[in-house]
Write a structure and sequence with these properties.
The protein has six domains: 110 residues, Nucleotidyltransferase, domain 5 (2-Layer Sandwich); 141 residues, Rossmann fold; 115 residues, Nucleotidyltransferase, domain 5 (2-Layer Sandwich), CATH 3.30.420; 89 residues, no CATH class; 109 residues, no CATH class; 64 residues, no CATH class. The chain is an alpha+beta fold. Helix 4 crosses helix 5 and helix 10 packs across helix 12. The longest helix has 31 residues. The relative contact order is 0.10. 30% of the residues lie in helices and 27% in strands. A hairpin with a 3-residue loop joins strand 1 and strand 2. The two termini are 39 Å apart.
């Protein structure tokens, strides 16, 4: 079987093709095509020796949804809500990202006030109809949307999570009056209490459907035209894949799919090397994503956001993303301080050294000036680039204004980049009670291996793992996932044995729906695995934690004990004497997909892999030093050497600083001891 995994990044689209019979691996990188992401995918697959008509499995991740939210490149959305609750979406939870900044502006709502329309109806907390739905008012609202040309409609009625009868009827009326419109209802998207979170998730999901649907439809058509007749699968933020048919309704699920694929691949690489604790460090051209795996499990969250104040309440890998990539722009602020990012040159025009019209200094330009990166080797020499424009823009915009030498300016850019990375690592580790010294740093993305050793030294992380193909590691993650769906529902009760029967009944209903979804996607019953979690909190507390449980539930005592332990880990506090209540239930269903098994590499020494030497600057030495340059493809298992060294390959460059050592293990990963 020949499998293809693709990651659509902000700068490059990465492709990996794996032949299970021969063990051969092909990798390709091609510039992303933001105007139509499908074109970049087809370009990358076409560059591979394996024809598209020879593929039997295709899975991909992308940042298309995330970028659409960041850039607000979204369709005009209409929101139908209960009379008196028109402004829930804009009031949010009344907090700000920086609580004490009185001048900070919050992000604008995704739906303008004039497009948030009310209808009389009311359902109480128990699901009882207090005021019937005014169907004539619904028809009037729908006609208004049609006149305004708004064909993407979100429905979020108060207490619909406990009784979706009125939302269902609104959907039916929209279908009668305006059949061209796409409708998204909160009781189907997120049947949980808290109206702001439910409304936000429903609105964002509705907004992304046209964006995601258009490129997925085009991608599926182009693949089919070239002979691929399998499912077009897409990563979702929870760590599984979904078919295009499922994504057509649950579009917000794939908004964080690219970084999630990277986190999955990072865990896989760490386990290959014998590490159950790992920090994934994915630095590309536009941003850096940091994730954490503890005891073999990737840290997850059930609330995340692209813009503060507008949460997406779908399960996702817990990833910290910062605007720090190879294309991040170095600039001087009004106070005369050097900054790097979050603005980026992206794929077009890219860094100055790319010769595509970029006229601002970037991290990649600094790496070229320091001698870490040879522009003649970008994409294995398949890309026009040169060092002189990098020197010019850094000298003009950074060195001269700050009174620095060119090398000092480039080194300062690198140091600030590393400091930004360390802050992201702290957010997923020390801020959550984990000691970075207990983890290995798995560095990937085109730029991750350049900076990883310096980040690890700053954070006292002893080991750095560089995968065989770091620049396409997220694409690799797309080959390592299962078809997955998850459901949640509000379930409020004391965490006592009295509610076990009710929990079991609710779990059974959710399992039936998951089985139905997976069956529609062609998953055999024997390949389905289920996981169950109970959302719990101390009575009266706002925040909840998800506690794993098995079925059948024999006793709530063990589950309460596990909750206390998790609370201690997360918040450094627990109280076994305090009462605990259940807030919700969550079930994940996986259709297990056969995973590829990658072959081991042959033995070899480092001597035959050394290509040349060149002068490279290291801040610890304070000068340029002669540095060995190795060809990654020639490094066999068991090869070892000391820094300073640079390892080059088509999709990335690895920097081994002075006083660090590098060793190649049996599966081709390089382990740096820093």
């Amino acid at each position: 079987m020949r499998r293809a995994g693709v990651d659509i990044g902000g700068t490059f689209t990465d492709v990996i093709v794996f032949d299970e019979e021969t063990g051969e691996i092909e990798i390709e990188k091609t510039p992303s095509t933001p105007a139509n992401p499908a074109e970049g995918v087809i370009n990358g697959l076409t560059k591979a020796d394996t024809g598209i008509d020879e593929l039997e499995f295709f899975s991909h991740g992308s940042t298309v949804g995330t970028n659409a939210l960041i850039e607000r490149e979204l369709p005009r959305i209409g929101l139908i809500t209960t009379e008196g609750f028109r402004d829930v979406h804009e009031i949010r939870d009344a907090t700000k990202e920086d609580l004490w900044d009185a001048y900070q502006d919050v992000a604008d709502p995704y739906v303008k006030r004039r497009d948030r329309l009310e209808v009389p109806e009311r359902i109480d907390y128990a699901g009882t109809v207090v005021e019937p739905l005014d169907e004539d008012a619904v028809r009037d609202v729908v006609r208004i949307f049609e006149k305004r040309g708004i064909d993407t409609i979100a429905i979020s009625l108060i207490n619909a999570y406990v009784n979706g009868e009125h939302e269902q009827r609104v959907e039916e009326i929209v279908a009668e009056e305006y059949p061209e419109a796409f409708v998204c209802s909160s009781h189907e998207i997120l049947p949980e209490m808290f109206e702001h979170e439910r409304t936000s998730t429903t609105v964002i999901n509705a907004a992304l459907v046209p964006v995601v649907r258009d490129y997925l439809t085009d991608l599926a058509d182009q693949l089919a035209d070239r002979g691929y007749d399998g499912d077009v699968l897409a990563m979702h933020s929870g760590g599984g894949v979904m078919t295009t048919e499922a994504i057509a309704y649950y579009a917000a699920r794939i908004a964080n799919s690219g970084p999630t694929a990277g986190a999955i691949a990072g865990r896989y690489i760490a386990q290959q090397c014998g590490f159950e604790n790992a920090i994934g460090f994915d630095m590309g051209g536009t941003s850096a994503d940091v994730s954490l795996t503890h005891e073999g499990e990737i840290e997850m969250t059930d609330e995340w956001a692209v813009e503060y104040g507008y949460p997406i309440m779908f399960p996702s890998t817990d990833i910290e993303t910062i605007g720090a990539g190879g294309g991040s722009i170095a600039w001087i602020d009004d106070g005369g301080s050097l900054r790097v990012g979050p603005r980026s040159q992206g794929a077009d025009p890219g860094p100055a050294c790319y010769l595509r019209g970029g006229d601002k200094p970037t991290t990649t330009d600094a790496n070229v000036v320091l001698g870490w990166v040879d522009p003649d080797q970008f994409l294995g020499g398949d890309m026009d680039a040169t060092a002189e424009p990098a020197r010019d823009v850094i000298r003009r915009d950074i060195a001269e204004p700050l009174g620095l030498e060119l090398t000092e300016a480039a080194s300062a850019i690198e140091q600030i980049t590393v400091a930004n990375m360390c802050n992201a690592v702290r957010l997923v580790s020390t801020s959550k009670g984990y000691d970075p010294r207990d983890f290995a740093l798995v560095a990937f993305g085109g730029a991750g291996p350049l900076h990883a050793a310096h980040v690890a030294r700053e954070m006292n992380i002893p080991n750095v793992i560089i995968p065989p193909y770091p620049g396409i590691n997220s694409a690799l993650g797309c080959l390592l996932v299962d078809v997955e769906h998850d459901l949640s529902q509000t379930f409020i009760a004391d965490a006592s044995d009295d509610v076990v029967a009710d929990i079991e009944s609710a779990f059974e209903e959710m399992e039936d729906e998951i089985h139905e979804r997976l069956d529609e996607e062609g998953v055999d019953e024997s390949d389905i695995q289920l996981e169950h979690e109970i959302k719990m909190r101390y009575t009266g507390q706002w925040r909840s934690l998800e506690v794993s449980c098995s079925r059948p539930i024999e006793s709530m005592a063990a589950i309460r004990s596990q909750f206390h332990s998790q609370h201690e880990q997360t918040y450094a506090y627990s109280d076994t004497e305090q009462s605990v209540e259940i807030y919700g239930l969550h079930v994940t269903g996986r259709g297990v997909v056969e995973k590829p098994a990658f072959p081991e590499i042959g033995d070899g020494s480092a001597d035959g892999a050394q290509r040349t030497t060149r002068e490279a600057y290291f801040d610890s030495e304070g000068e340029f030093v002669e540095t060995a340059v190795y060809d990654r493809g020639e490094l066999g298992a068991g090869a070892s050497f000391e820094g300073p060294a640079i390892i080059e390959q088509m999709d990335s460059t690895v920097v081994v600083p002075p006083n660090a050592t590098a060793e190649v293990e049996q599966t081709g990963n390089i382990i740096l001891r820093v």
